[in-house]
Amino acid sequence: MDRGRFVILCHLLKMTSGLVETKVVDVQKMVAMFLHILVHYVKNRMIQRKFVQSGEIVSRHFNIVLLAILRLHDELLKKPQLVPNSCTNPRWKCFEMYIKVNVSATDSSRYKTRKGEVATNVLGVYDMKGNFMFILVGWEGSAGMNFETVELSTGYYYLCDASYLNTEGFLALYKGERCPLLEAFKLLKCSWAILQGNSCYLVQVQCQTIMACYLLHNLTNKEMTNAEIPDELDEGDLTYATIEGDDIDYIETSNE
Fold first, then answer.
1. Are residues 112 and 59 located together in one domain of the fold?
2. Largest distance between two CA atoms of the chain
3. Which of 3, 70, 102, 216 has the fewest C-beta atoms under 10 angstroms from its C-beta?
4. For this UniProt entry, which residues form the secretion signal (predicted)?
5. Is position 17 within any domain?
6. How many structural domains comprise the chain?
7. Are residues 102 and 191 in the same domain?
8. Which neighbouring-strand residues pair with 126?
9. Whether residue 209 is found in the same domain as residue 106
10. How far apart are CA 144 and CA 247, in angstroms?
11. Buried residues in 88-100 as b, exposed as e (16+ CB within 10 A)
C-alpha cells in the first residue's frame, strides 16, 4: 500500500469508522502498525522494536484498528451487479479457499482439511472489476458448501468453480478449466503475508483479520486500476478447497 492509499484509508477510518487517536498513539501510527503485521506477518515483539511501543499497546491498538476496518464493511464490500448478456469476461465467480488457522487441540479435528491441514474455509464472490462482493469466513476446513439456503433471483446464475455441482442459480465450469479467480486469491496471499501461514491469534480474531484483508483488497483495487500479481509466489504455494476430486455438495454440521 503506497502513501496515497494509506492516507485514504486513515481518512475513511476516522470519518466513517470513528477511529480516534489515543493518549499514546495517533491514528496514522496505529494503522501503520496494523498494516505492517498484515503485510509482513511479524510477531508482537518485532512491532515493539520497530515502533518503540510496549507489547500491550501494540496488541490493544491492533484490535482497535481491526474493528474499525470491519466497520468499513458497507463502504468497501461492493454490492452485486448483474452481468450483461453481452459480457464474455469469465472473471466473475464464486470460489472457495482454505486459510491456515491456529485452533485448540480439541477443535483441530473439525478444522482439518482433506489434506490434513488445520484451516478455515473461506467463500468469496468476485465481480468483474476485481472487487469482492461477498465473503464468508469461519467455517471449519472439514466443511463443504451447501447452496440450498442461498436466495437468488429467478433466471440469474452465479458462475462457480468446477468442484461445485450445477444447481439452481449456480453454473459450474467444466472440470480442468482454469478458474481466473485463482489469480484474485493469489494476489490476496501475496499482498497479505498473514494469510499464508498459521496465525498466532485466536481463531475468532483470525477470521476477523481475514475479513479485513478482503476489505483492504477492495480499497486497494478501487484506487489502483492495474493490480499486478507478483511472480515470486507460484500456485503451488496456495491452498484451495477446489481441487480435482473435491466435489463440494454438502456442509457438515457440528454441535459447537
1. no
2. 57
3. 3
4. 1-22
5. yes
6. 2
7. yes
8. 132
9. yes
10. 9
11. eeeebbbbbbbbb
Domain identity same for 66 and 100: no
- Could you tell me whether strands 132-140 and 93-100 are parallel, antiparallel, or unpaired per DSSP bridges? unpaired
Are both 49 and 124 inside the same structural domain?
no
Query: Residue 233 is part of which domain span?
Result: 93-237
DSSP 220-237: HHHH-S--PPPSSS-GGG
The three cell numbers locating residue 146: 451447501
Q: Does some domain include residue 222?
A: yes
Chain centroid to CA 242: 16
Question: Pick from 79, 184, 201, 82: which is nearest to 123 by CA?
Answer: 184
